[in-house]
Specification:
It holds the Pfam family Pyr_redox_3. Keywords: Monooxygenase, Oxidoreductase. GO terms for molecular function: monooxygenase activity. By secondary structure, this protein is of the alpha/beta class. It folds into two domains: 2-60 and 102-147 and 346-497, FAD/NAD(P)-binding domain, CATH 3.50.50.60; 157-213 and 259-341, 3-Layer(bba) Sandwich (FAD/NAD(P)-binding domain), CATH 3.50.50. The protein is built from 15 helices and 20 strands. The strands form five sheets. Strands 1, 2, 3, 4, 5, 6, 17 and 18 form an eight-stranded mixed beta sheet that branches. Strands 7-16-8-9-12 form a five-stranded parallel beta sheet, with no helix packed on it. The chain has a three-stranded antiparallel beta sheet with strand order 13-14-15, with no helix packed on it. The longest helix is centred in the last third of the chain and has 22 residues, at 400-421.
């Protein structure tokens, strides 16, 4: 209680601090307000909210989950223009939700969290920004898994004589028309922007370290009558959302069985055979692992783009750059004017872990040593009152909103109980945490993520799957329906507070 009194009258102390202004952070802000917890702020590093949908503006940037499911369940958008919404529309949806729920008074733009340290002495989180220190009893770290680009370590890359940029930092000032362009990587971003730039460039060379399984994408415009129906009869959109969720849940369940995924793989193989007639190119583009081992991708124009006469696929990773010459690991080479890095983001080791310090002053990343571990993907040992969105082993093959809303239900319930019962700190029980993670890793052993025969970003540098939830999202949502204090270590040294004084 003394710590609470010490800071409660200053502008720099809050009940809760949220870090991150994407969909996870915004959802946290909305749910805090809904719970009557108004003493919070949201720190956003940029000059605008938006998260990954603000950062990624590359040509063709769009969602790979149907819009009906890629939205808050409590704030569905009847106005999506397509089955799979594009970047600008998703970003606008986020900004519209910010306005509707009056979140901006709580937001501190241009406030990057440089580090966050738990202090036992003060009983709070101390978050350092360029604008000074902030303190809070609770911290919700909602920084997201896809915001720090992975940059390849390639010999000679710093001496490249042309232009080079990552797809998430797209250089709109560079006109690619008539240029010789190399794209490094064939992941989720590359399969979207390559078909967009292919008609413009003189020559496009794609460095493909690993071929990907690509499914047809059931994308189409949502015509005005359909949008009107969604608006007038919200139940119809709810039914569409439910059916999409069911499809993704079926795939998610299938991933538990490599044998089941081999059957599902037949659709992807048919798609490849149907769109790629050249046998040499088809062989290059045929993966040697079971579908689902890596992220499942969807596109209708990826294969047709690669089949064009101005495109060359090098089935090898980039090994060295000499001047303007790019040399692949298999010895093939090409001369280019522009390099676009489609090399993805850091997933297995969340970048925020480099900035979070536990009660012993240890960085979360140093404790993890490359293999993130927590309890219910949400809390980490020796980090009291710290909640991690998209934490270890909580990813699913479905919409990110399924994870976001499940975690927020869990976190908000924890905060409400803490405030109402006068609890000062909550932290994972090491014994229960160990049992949980042993069970998670055992369940993952038979899944296609672990047994599918690929190297994916789900597997960390120690060869451990620290990313994926091994069961259904039904089970995820059921486990996070309420926060069981008996599974945690709690310290009750604060007088109980009613909601209206929270």
């Amino acid at each position: 209680m003394e710590q609470q009194k010490k800071y409660s009258n200053t502008q720099n102390y809050h009940r809760v601090i949220i870090v991150g202004g994407g969909f996870a952070g915004l959802g946290a802000a909305i749910k805090l307000k809904e719970a009557g917890i108004e003493d919070f702020i949201l720190l956003e590093k940029a000059a605008e909210m938006g998260g990954v949908w603000r950062e990624n503006t590359y040509p063709g940037c769009a969602c790979d989950v149907p819009s009906a499911l890629y939205s808050y369940s409590f704030e569905q958008n009847p106005s999506w223009s397509r089955v799979f919404a594009q970047q600008a529309e998703i970003k606008q949806y986020l900004l519209d939700v910010v306005d509707k729920y009056k979140v901006m008074p709580h937001v501190r733009l241009n406030h990057e969290a440089l580090d966050a340290k738990w202090s036992d002495a003060e009983g709070c989180w101390i978050i350092n920004t360029l604008h000074g220190e902030l303190r809070s009893q609770f911290a919700i770290l909602a920084c997201g898994p896809m915001h720090e680009p992975v940059l390849p370590k390639v010999k000679g890359i710093e001496k490249f004589k042309g232009e080079i940029f990552h797809s998430s930092q797209w250089r709109h000032d560079i006109d690619l028309t008539g240029k010789r362009v190399a794209v490094i990587g064939t992941g989720a971003s590359a399969i979207q922007f390559i078909p967009q730039i292919q008609p413009k460039v003189m020559q496009l060379t794609v460095f493909q370290r690993t071929a990907q399984w690509i499914l047809p994408k059931s994308d189409m415009p949502l015509l005005a009558p359909v949008r009107a129906m969604f608006k007038l009869l919200p139940l119809t959109q709810q039914l569409m959302r439910g059916s999409v969720y069911g499809i993704f849940e079926t795939i998610n369940g299938g991933i538990q069985s490599p044998a089941a995924m081999k059957q599902f793989q037949k659709l992807a193989r048919w798609h490849l055979n149907f769109q790629i007639k050249d046998s040499v190119l088809r062989e290059k583009l045929t993966p040697n692992f079971i579908i689902g081992c890596k992220r499942i991708l969807q596109s209708n124009n990826w294969y047709p783009a690669l089949a064009q006469s101005n495109v060359d696929v090098i089935a090898s990773g980039l090994a060295e750059i000499k001047g303007n010459t790019l040399i692949a690991a298999n010895g093939e080479s090409c001369d280019v004017d522009v390099i676009i890095l489609g090399t993805g983001f850091e997933i297995a080791e969340p970048p925020i872990a480099q900035r979070v310090y536990n009660r012993f002053g240890q960085k979360m990343s140093d404790v993890w040593q490359g293999s993130p571990e927590g309890y219910m993907g949400t809390m980490v040992e020796n980090c009291p009152n710290g909640f991690l969105m998209f934490g270890p082993n909580v990813a699913v093959s479905s919409s990110a909103f399924i994870i976001i809303e499940a975690q927020l239900k869990y976190i908000i319930d924890a905060l409400k109980q803490a405030i109402e019962l006068g609890i000062q700190t909550i932290e994972p029980n090491p014994e229960i945490t160990q049992k949980f993670n042993t069970k998670v890793q055992a369940a993952l052993q038979t899944t296609v993520w672990n047994k599918g025969g690929c190297q994916s970003y789900f597997i960390d540098r120690n060869g451990r799957n620290s990313t994926v939830w091994p069961w259904t999202t039904f089970k995820l949502r059921e486990k996070m329906k309420y926060f069981n204090l008996k599974e945690y270590l709690i310290d009750e040294h604060v007088e109980a507070k009613s909601k209206d004084t929270a």
